[in-house]
Structures are given as structure tokens and as C-alpha cells.
UniProtKB/TrEMBL annotation:
Protein name (record): SWIM-type domain-containing protein
Keywords, ordered alphabetically: Metal-binding, Zinc, Zinc-finger
Phylogenetic lineage: Eukaryota, Viridiplantae, Streptophyta, Embryophyta, Tracheophyta
One GO MF term: zinc ion binding
Domain SWIM-type per the UniProt entry, residue ranges: 439-480
Keyword Metal-binding: yes
Keyword set includes Zinc: yes
Amino acid sequence: MEDQNIFVGQEFPDVKAFRNAIKEAAIAQHFELLIVKSDLIRYIAKCASEGCPWRIRAIKLPNAPTFTIRSLEGTHTCGKNAQNGHHQASVDWIVNFIEERLRDNINYKPKDILHDIYKQYGITIPYKQAWRAKERGLQAIYGSSEEGYCLLPAYCEQIKKTNPGSHAEVFTAGSDSRFQRFFISFYASLHGFLNGCLPVICLGGIQLKSKYLGTLLSATSFDGDGGVFPLAFGVVDEENDDSWMWFLLELRKALEMSTEKIPPLTFLSDGQKSIADAVKRKFPSSCHAICLQYLSESISRDFKNSRLVQLLWKAAYSTSNRGFKEKMAEIEEVSSDAATWLQQYSPSRWALIHFDGTRYGHFSSNIYEFNKWILEARELPIIQVIKRIHCKLTEEFELRRSRSSTWSSILSPSAEKRIMDGRTHASTYQVLRSDEVEFEVISAERSDIVNTGTRSCSCRDWQLYRIPCSHAVAALTSYKKDVYAFTDKYFTAASYRESYSKEVHSIPDKLEWSRTRLVRPPKFRRPPGRPEKKRLCVEDLNREKHTVHCSKCNQTGHYKTTCKTEVVQTTQQF
């Protein structure tokens, strides 16, 4: 940065540009400035190092905003050693330095800011200063957190205006209208879910990291090709029993608004009690399964044994009681503690053989995939998080609608591949017909019974995926039956196209919004700076606890200010 030179006669568009240039030069050349005089028409400064003769004077040209350097006296004798921090490297200066980088990368970390400034200018700034600059930079680009909450009611009105049939509401608490909850489900999502997607809903939440924190609650489904299909989402000030009960109530309202009869549903979640209770209350006829990915990650984290994870998945996929019991016995042998831990989750909520509902082959939730959409935006104001989801929805619907228009197959690509693989295996099977609907299919390893009337096979794959397994394909093709006619409608290309048939419309710029009502941010806010880590000291754990003593009643366990004993004071009169 030694090329940041200034010279007599150099001109600048205005006083602000000049000040920025001289500040940049001071930082780049490692000397401190001492400003003698600075106003709108003149600027005089010298080197802050005592005895250094360097001095600069600039003035404004008459009848123009242009600033020009009139004199530049002396050369630096100070050694230019202002490296450990620099007075001119203010928060505002750092904001200017990182603004473009922040636009490209929201997760530009303070430690990376420190590294880049040191690399480019050779100076070291405090971590706290970099953190503040990032906060101020994000606010300059994306607006303040307070403004984000204030814009929510108008944003909801715009959603309902540009996307008729959408369900969007803001809920506040208290007389001062503090933000409490927000819910949105676009009409395109509601229509696509009810007319094309699998009747499976995944539930989950992710913590936001903006100034006022909060949690994003989401409901997603699967399209006929296995892709994540966002159905609804909301933001709550705090994730608890009430917030999940509210979220599922709003979800039910949104579904009832779009259909006369809600289809039988299967829910997938991490199994937390808040979600389980809410599903049971708001969707009493549905089935609720625990995400197997969550279970496997939990057992791996707690017991550090990959063998346990493998056995868990095998137990979940077991197609007979005997097979399930064998795998559970193996888990017991590997770790009795793990077997005990697993008992807190009923097999009826994660094991195939015991689950009453239909998961269409999906043992794990896709909520984590949806959360990736906003992972980088979690530090932004709430309105920006919602806009990110809105934009991503618009892009994905358009992309998938365009892509599916080129398909020539009857089923979606993944379902079509499953049928093709089934045909390959079926060519080696022998089929014996028992009656009109029942068949025995014999392979080199085993014999399976297929019933085309109940759409079932003893291997249970047909019931699990709702796509004919290789044994069913063999039975159907041997008697000239259409395999596609025995595949659930959700996997057809037509259903996939219907899922994305409606557009997610964009909304006008906020300058065109009309402010309907004021919503204030929640009272709770994130503490400034890096979160403190609580560390337990062994000596502290072994140290005897301090016993408090009341000076009023001479008892232990409380102080004088909290004493409830009345002490009668007697006075002696002399």
C-alpha cells in the first residue's frame, strides 16, 4: 500500500473524498494523523509523532466543491511504526473496507476481517472493533433489525395481495405490540402439496442469530422425485410447547383454507415432546415418526460407536419381527446403555415393522436440507430471512417446472429408475400364480408372496415405497399387467408437474408498501459480542458451598432482606 501517495495540486471531488484519501494514506503508510483544523473549506493536519515535521494543508476551490492540496511540508522522521492499531482505522473505515465483501459473503467473520486488514495494510485492530464494523455493515446493506420487524405487517399484506390464497399473519403480544410470532404459507406451496406431493410433512426448527434471536419453524414435504418441498414456515420469539401448538394450528388453518378434506398425513420430526403433543392435538388422525437420521446421529454422538449406528438402521428396516428382535439383541450386546437409551423412543415411531403409517420410503426428515436455504442469512434481520426463502421458492418452482416439462416418462426419474431396476431383477424370477391376485415369486435366494389386490409383497418393499418391488414387477409383467397402474399417483410425472404448476409471485419493493401497523421487536435481545462459554472448574465442584446467614433471626439459608421472621424489639425506659 506504499503507492497511496499524495502530492501538491492533487484534487478531490469534495471534502469527504479528500478526508477518506488522507485517512487511507495514513493507514497504508503507517503514520498517525493529528488534525489541526478541519471544516468544509479547509483542512490542516500534521504527523502525530512528536518531532516529525510532516504537515499537509488543503482548501476548497472557489465556486466548486472540489478540494485540492495546497502544501505538503517535510518528510516523515517518525519511522512510520503505527502498526499495532491505528487511530484512523475507525469502525466507519472498516465498514467501507468490508462492505463489498459482506455483500458477497454474509458470513464474513470478524477474524477474517482482522486477517484481511492486516494482510492489506499491515495493522492490527481489536476483534471487538471488527465485530462492530460487521454489525454496522450488515445494517447498512440490509437494514436494521428493528426495521425488519416493523415491515412484517406490510410484507404480509403484499404476500396476500400478490399471491392470493396464501396464509400470512403476524402476531404480537402486550400493549406495546411486541413481536411474538409470524406464519406464512404461499398458495403455490399449499396447492402443490395437496395436489402433487407425498402426504408426508417434516417438522423442525433452526435458531436465528440476529440481534433479537428467535427460531425459524418449518414444515416441508417431498415431491414425487424425492426433492424437498417447503410447505410453510414461521418465526417465533421462543421455541416451546405453545409455539409448536400455535404453528401446527396455523398450518391446519392454511390446509383447511385450500381443501375440503385434509388427506391422511404422516409427520416426521426429531421426536421432541413439544412437536409430538402438538401433532397429536392438531392432527389427531395422523401418524408421527421420528427422523432416523436424528436418532442415528444422537446414538453416534452419545456412544461413539459406528457399529451401533449400522445396527439401528438395520433394525429400522427389518421387515419381520424376528429380524427386528435380532438386531435389537445385537445392540444390547454391543452396548446395554445404548439399548436402554433407545427405549425412550417407541419402536412404533421409528421401526418399519411397527409403524402404522406410510412414509413412502422416507425414514429421515428433509428439514435439514431446507434449513440450508437460510443458513447464511441467519444473522440478518427477520424480513431478510423471509425474503431469502421467498426468492429461493420462486427460483426452485420455476426451475423444477421447466425441468419437468422435458420429461417423457410416465413416472418421475427416481421412480422410473426404481421400476427399471425392478425389471432387471424380475427377469431372473420364476412366477407361480395362485389365483386372480396372488402370486408366488421364486428367486435364487428366497420365495415371496405378491398380492396385487392389496398391493403388497412379503418383502414389504411395495408397502414401504408404494412403488412395485421387483417381485411385484415380475408378477405383473408375467400376466400382462401395467406396472405403472399399480404405482401410487404421487410418483407420476403429472403429479410432479402439478406440484409446481402454480407460480410463487414476487412482491414490489418496500418503497411501495403501505405501513399498516407498528410491530416492535421482542424485549429479549442477543447480548453484544462473542457469547461467553461457561466452564466448570474441578476445584469449584469440590469446594464446599457457602452458607448464608441471617443477621436478623440468626438462622441460616437466607439473608436479612428476605427474612420472614418477625423480631419483636423491646425498648427499656430508664
